[in-house]
Amino acid sequence: MFRKRIVLCSLASIAALALALCVAPLKAQTIALDVTAAANATAAPLPKEAQAAISAFQEEQRKIYAEAEAKLVPARKALSERLEAVAAKLDAAGEDQLAAHVRSKRAEYTSGLDAKDPLPQTQNLLAHKDRIGQSLYFKITGRTTGSVWGSGPYTNDSDLATAAVHAGAIKDGETAVIKVTLSANENAYKGSKQNGVTTSDWGPFQQGSFKVEKDK
Q: Parallel, antiparallel, or unpaired: how do β-strands 193-194 and 197-198 relate?
């Protein structure tokens, strides 16, 4: 009797395991379908009324950021002068390393405001995304190998040197100072092909945009 119970229990366990193995893929498939449905719902276009409300907000956001950044420009220049004066005193005192550190901070806050004091080459503009409405100058070497989204404005994660070639602000392999103007998010970015660079399309991007042109 005891052995029969063991056999029966074993058979029951095997049956339960087999059922679980059959049901598990069905559950996984159901979950996958649910996730896909949710993703499709998220990707669905917004109603015109909702999109209009978002566009109106983004336009207001651009204006506010631009006004705020415009007020900061003279403050940045004043900070630049003060920090350079501090660095000069440190130079005179023989504190070269400390002077270099002060100038590094000066560059972090104030460099790039004019073509005579350009920022060094950077891969993208994500570090400057909050300076909406401001124009910055960069000394870069053009290239055609980076990834770029949009046709001006470009997304802030686009490769700056490649976007500059696409915009005609610089040639491939050329080193020069360019002017970049930062702006807020766009609802869509349209790619194009020009100056030997092909850029890609992209939808809404929440990290800001930029336009690039030659230093005049």
A: antiparallel
Tell me: do 177 and 197 sit in the same domain: yes
10-residue mean pLDDT series, the chain (216 residues):
42 46 43 41 72 83 77 84 94 94 83 80 91 89 97 96 98 96 90 97 92 89
Cross-strand pairs, 136: 180
State whether 66 and 166 are in the same domain. Answer: no
Question: For 185, left (φ over 0), alpha (ψ -120 to 50), or beta?
Answer: beta
**Count of domains in the chain?**
2
Q: What letter represents residue 19's amino acid?
A: L
Region class of 52: left (phi > 0), else alpha (psi between -120 and 50), else beta: alpha
Residues 116, 213 within the same domain: yes
Chain length of the chain = 216
3-class SS shares of the chain: helix, strand, coil, % to 5:
50, 15, 30
